[in-house]
Amino acid sequence: MLNFRTLNDIFFTIASGDRERAILTKDGAGAWQPISSAQVYQRTRMLAAALVEWGIAKGDRIAILSENRWEWAVADFAALAIGAIDVPIYPTLTAEQIAILLADSGSRVAFVSNRAQYEKVASVRAQTALEKIVIMDDEEAPGAVRFSSLVPGAGLIGGAGGSSEHDSTFDRRAYDISPSDAATLIYTSGTTGEPKGVVLTHGNIACNVNESLLGFEIAAGDSCISFLPLSHITARHLDYAIYAKQATVAYCAAFDQLPAAMAAIRPTILVAVPRVYEKVRQEVERRAALSPIKRRLVKWALETGAKHREAILREERPAATSWRLADRLVYKKVREAFGGHVRYFIAGGAPLGMDTALWYSSVGIRVLEGYGLTETSPVLAVNNPVNYRMGSVGKPLPQVTCRIAEDGELLVKGPNVFNGYWKQPPQAPESFEFPGWFRTGDIGHIDADGFLYITDRKKELLKTSGGKLIAPQPIENKLKSHLLVAEAALVGDRHKFAAALIAPNFAALEGWAKEKGIAAPTRPELVADPRVIAEYQAIVNEVNSGLANFETIKRFTLVPDEWSLATGELTPSLKLKRRVVLEKYKKEIEAFYADEATSHG
């Protein structure tokens, strides 16, 4: 097992690697270029020196407001090296939201990616304690410092700043940071509440990296694309883990750039939120639906794969001729969507639906699901190549202790668990049960073999007026497993029955409608068409067939909208913002229950 004490230990692993491809990044022409381990060290050292010259000291907060890029990592490592606390901020936030986080954290420096992000920060600067704004793009902005002026030669990929010589003063300062020192302040509102600052120490995250890598064989020849937002602890943890194994991290700034990055980088490790896996599946099914021959071929390949599922889950390659033929005609093309070289497919950040896991196993891919929270650095449990059980989130990490409370909530202890929220007392009773058990807010259970299963968020359970509890996420995942469904939200708390808001997969729906001869010039007209409603009723009926009567969806409505991060219904990790959806579709929900008093629910 690895034995990192601090995140600076991981940084020095990069620095000592003598590797030409520690990082891959796009140049101005869009070509992927390497940054060596020596360059990472020197650029971090120069940036840290600038921070020290500005008077930044141990415990000071430094904000990073940027998409994923190599400068994000260097700013992070520079802050950590001098004992500062970095404050990651999602670049999708508004100026007003950014002002709240900057002011609450007391950040003295803010790194921003580009002029657009700079403008947001500059517009609220008077409300903050900011002394410096550093812009990563090589462009001028009033009152801002160019990143390239602090790190000479950084604009030249493979250029200056590549000396292998170390700076003893810088090294000593970084090595003096202890595991108990705070490393990062991460604001999380999750899917329901107001932002809360989570303080994680070097030791919290470093020990979590050590243990989460158990069972995975990762080496210098491996690579991973960093595309999940680095403002989320899952993405940060992944990058640290890849660096810890001296593998290569390629930075991808946006989700829509991911397919091209997959094709160019051909990563060997993929960590993605379930929505990424769902989108690839839906694209395969959408293309198959374009012709009867393709549809029959994919159906046959899935049926063939299902017969050999147990072998796939044991990481064995079936020898049957039918499976090998299906692999050549269908499965290989699915793998190519991820670059074709992925050895480890890992899902986290939200529950992976069982239907999705089964589908991937039927095309020869075993998806290893994990589970964690920002407050736990984040990994609590993970399926790995050694210990795997479909439907579970794996076994808890060796130093993580789990307990299930009387109401089903998962409580945890471990060296990766934070000690409390920013500006709040340590282990406050609303977050911890004495002595030191953190309340995860998730409902779960542990089987006889020690595998952990997560049902849903405790706060999101629906309690019908008859007293029955319904976990919405498993039902929503079943709906989303269908090609025509992009997102879904189950409602019904304190009502007689459950109902659903369904956001269609319009790319697939519009193709289906064209095939059926349905002419609808607008999306509101399309979702109101009786033939469309009937098709979705069939999907709902199929989902209902596997549910208990009190869980079944009695009514639904199709919304004429696509839900996304940009429009506010999804979090940066593409989870449903239930509170936002309930407010946005208040009238539709009220209509579900207008005649509730006389309905039979």
From TrEMBL:
Entry superkingdom: Bacteria
Stretches assigned to the AMP-dependent synthetase/ligase domain: 20-422
Keyword Iron: no
GO CC entries: membrane
SUPFAM superfamilies: Acetyl-CoA synthetase-like (SSF56801)
Coiled-coil features, chain-numbered ranges: none
Pfam families: AMP-binding, AMP-binding_C_3
Single GO MF descriptor: long-chain fatty acid-CoA ligase activity
UniProt entry tagged with the keyword Lipid metabolism: yes
InterPro entries: AMP-binding_CS, AMP-dep_synth/lig_dom, ANL_N_sf
UniProt EC number: 6.2.1.3
Enzyme kind, highest EC tier: ligase
Keyword list, A-Z: Fatty acid metabolism, Ligase, Lipid metabolism
UniProt-recorded name of the protein: Long-chain acyl-CoA synthetase
Taxon lineage: Bacteria, Pseudomonadati, Acidobacteriota, Terriglobia, Terriglobales
